[in-house]
């Protein structure tokens, strides 16, 4: 109404015939600069004007949104006066009550709409934003959400804008029904739905019964895919109705469908240009006459043909299918192929690697600059970079070179993640007690891709000092070289395992040779000196070995290891596998003669491709023994089981045969270890509610199994049985939680020993803090 009254006033006050402007004045300006206001009016002294031009000037001022009222009149002196009332500016803006939508996101949206401190207050714009917020909450099933906006006057023509949000609660789906389905039951159709009926889920953290518009739309798409994958080309969703209860807490969903009848394939044909062998294309087609039509198979066929053409350099091939419906519910499928030109790589550009040198990335590329661009080489290059473990995300995009049709640039974008630590720590381990340590561990030393680690660690029973350096590209063709220097002292009497002290010092050198992209063969040699000092009450097994072979040994160890690793995700893998088999032999050049054979394997399955729900299995077996003049494995080379790294729920290194003591000894038998090891773990990894950073936090339900066994026992030891006995395997289950902190990992295990026997030591709760990794 203010616009109308202002215009009427202008028409009444200003003569309808044109006359010259004696002068122009604007009264009431506070916020808007006067020069801008005069430019909007457009009148100059001496310029003729009439009522239409005044009308246009008033509209120009109103259109800026700065003014709530504009009057125009000519005073007694012939001056044309525009009297304006400016809208107030926003002096303060507060938002309260929002959790689902972050405040910074809300303020960003308000700013884009011109609502921020210092800007002119426009009620109509704020009303639109209020309605949009309400709509967004409704789309998330929060029908009880409320968005209230209040304004309070402030001095100097300003207002305080307060947005108060009550997000309410998500309405629950209490009824979900499909009408019109005759060939399939509701249970079959809703099996893959993200939406579910209230109380139907076994998972207490499930949000399936919470209604959202986006989730229901996804379920409708899933329903359509269900029918199209089974040949129902005439399937239609006639309607989907959503009703809300009066209290806005419950939702009723009814989906009305028309099924039609399934179609079968009558003929499959190829059309277009085929730059590669037709047989190669036909091998990608998994459909033949008489098969029930399946959209998912058609989609996969299109993808497979496109990928096969991409392997020959046709990166931008276009493959479409033309379905032709026939009588009697049959369909012809014609795959139309347009390969386009062969494409070559002009340049490979890396970004995001602020620490890692380009050369580290470039040497993993199997796709080269100037070469024919192939899909398989590009994907293989991406996978190799992911396997480095230095990056949380790797993205490779092909970008056409402007002005050409046969050249692309590869943009390799990475996100670096922590690849090591520098730390001085005080920690505690359930197995080692207090741990004091200093360590430098870097898997990507100075961005070169080389691995350097120096660790100095002391606990109540061990002192470890080690330097390791590995160059994975000692030669340009991928031969690696590793050097290791170590010194370790162990006082096992402090852990009630045995009454002896062990000192070891050694130097090792290894070379690894690539067999394939994932496989490697590593040869190593280690020179080691070992000294054993018995305590006052050693076990019979320990003293027996010392009596036979002495207490000081100079050994030369040779090793060979085959490994095959395709793990993705770095410290906490999310996909892939890893397997290694090793043989270590104490050569005749040394004082002892023994060997150890080991096999380690693990695999991750990404259950829903989200990197959040994973299934992980791992296993380890080991066997060692003497050879030649030695008929047993040295006792300090025995395998042990139990604790955080093997069978959780049992005390560290507590499983397996027990040692023995002379008659009359008061010493308590403890774990002897064994020359046979077997352990296995199965884990269901799931996202922990309330945690956002799942790349450094991992929660899992686990089942562990394993034990150690001995093939040689002293005749007098009735607590040691020779050979592997499956009935002696120990089992446990529980919950584990791991957090990779910026300094060091922190892990907790809550485990229940399932079949502990007399003499077993169990731990319900185990944790480690401050150890290096």
TrEMBL record:
<feature type="domain" description="POTRA">
    <location>
        <begin position="88"/>
        <end position="168"/>
    </location>
</feature>
<dbReference type="GO" id="GO:0043165">
    <property type="term" value="P:Gram-negative-bacterium-type cell outer membrane assembly"/>
</dbReference>
<dbReference type="InterPro" id="IPR034746">
    <property type="entry name" value="POTRA"/>
</dbReference>
<protein>
    <recommendedName>
        <fullName>Outer membrane protein assembly factor BamA</fullName>
    </recommendedName>
</protein>
<feature type="signal peptide">
    <location>
        <begin position="1"/>
        <end position="18"/>
    </location>
</feature>
<keyword id="KW-1134">Transmembrane beta strand</keyword>
<feature type="domain" description="POTRA">
    <location>
        <begin position="171"/>
        <end position="260"/>
    </location>
</feature>
<keyword id="KW-0732">Signal</keyword>
<dbReference type="InterPro" id="IPR010827">
    <property type="entry name" value="BamA/TamA_POTRA"/>
</dbReference>
<keyword id="KW-0472">Membrane</keyword>
<feature type="domain" description="POTRA">
    <location>
        <begin position="263"/>
        <end position="340"/>
    </location>
</feature>
<dbReference type="Pfam" id="PF07244">
    <property type="entry name" value="POTRA"/>
</dbReference>
<dbReference type="Pfam" id="PF01103">
    <property type="entry name" value="Omp85"/>
</dbReference>
<dbReference type="InterPro" id="IPR039910">
    <property type="entry name" value="D15-like"/>
</dbReference>
<comment type="function">
    <text>Part of the outer membrane protein assembly complex, which is involved in assembly and insertion of beta-barrel proteins into the outer membrane.</text>
</comment>
<comment type="similarity">
    <text>Belongs to the BamA family.</text>
</comment>
<comment type="subunit">
    <text>Part of the Bam complex.</text>
</comment>
<keyword id="KW-0812">Transmembrane</keyword>
<dbReference type="InterPro" id="IPR000184">
    <property type="entry name" value="Bac_surfAg_D15"/>
</dbReference>
<dbReference type="GO" id="GO:1990063">
    <property type="term" value="C:Bam protein complex"/>
</dbReference>
<feature type="domain" description="POTRA">
    <location>
        <begin position="343"/>
        <end position="417"/>
    </location>
</feature>
<dbReference type="InterPro" id="IPR023707">
    <property type="entry name" value="OM_assembly_BamA"/>
</dbReference>
<keyword id="KW-0998">Cell outer membrane</keyword>
<dbReference type="GO" id="GO:0051205">
    <property type="term" value="P:protein insertion into membrane"/>
</dbReference>
<keyword id="KW-0677">Repeat</keyword>
